[in-house]
Amino acid sequence: MASVASPVTFKEFCPLYYLLNAIPTKVQKGFRSIVVYLTALDTNGDYIAVGSSIGMLYLYCRHLNQMKKYNFEGKCESITFVKLLSCFDDLVAVGTASGRVAVFQLVSSLPGRNKQLRRFDVAGIHKSSITALAWSPNGMKLFSGDDKGKIVYSALDLDQGTCNSSLVLEEPSSIVQLDYNQKVLLVSTLQRTLLFYTEEKSVKQVGTQPRK
């Protein structure tokens, strides 16, 4: 006998003031006061990751009620995409407006887990704004897409501390979404959606008509 679904109710949620109040609305750069815009967001059961227009990643730990900040060295540029992953270690991938991609391996207080913050950089293959990021469930593979249609595969070895990247696909229009599962990468662009089989390096288009 099928169970009867409970009626759907509407619920209003208030803004996360405890999170927003921990992020400055302006920062001082020399004699200039620069407004901070929130530009990217991702969440999971452990963290809320917020990217900003000043190149700062704000990472809120939901269990400890603590906010931490991470940034890129050098030029302050807008963060365009963030992607969290909880596997054996907690990871967050960050993409910027100029095509920089970095992975932060977060510190954990649990036994046997990572005890030192580490950062891995995807070597400069992307030259334009990062528009999509996708993890494999085990955190060993990261796919990044940009607004010029390039998709880069990065193989991470957290034990060895290495990140090796290569261009795997190039589309004629901007990448808008990536998702990866079981050796298949789902790619959506402004013109079409396709399946990229990573072992065979083959492409299968979803549907026959191009997007308008």
From TrEMBL:
Superkingdom of this protein's organism: Eukaryota
Gene3D superfamilies xrefs: YVTN repeat-like/Quinoprotein amine dehydrogenase (2.130.10.10)
Coiled-coil features, chain-numbered ranges: none
InterPro entries: WD40/YVTN_repeat-like_dom_sf, WD40_repeat_dom_sf, WD40_rpt
Membrane-crossing residue ranges in chain numbering: none
One Gene Ontology cellular component annotation held by this UniProt entry: cytoplasm
GO BP terms in the entry: protein exit from endoplasmic reticulum
SUPFAM superfamilies reported for this sequence: WD40 repeat-like
Protein name per the record: TCPR2 protein
Organism for this UniProt entry: Burhinus bistriatus
Gene: Tecpr2
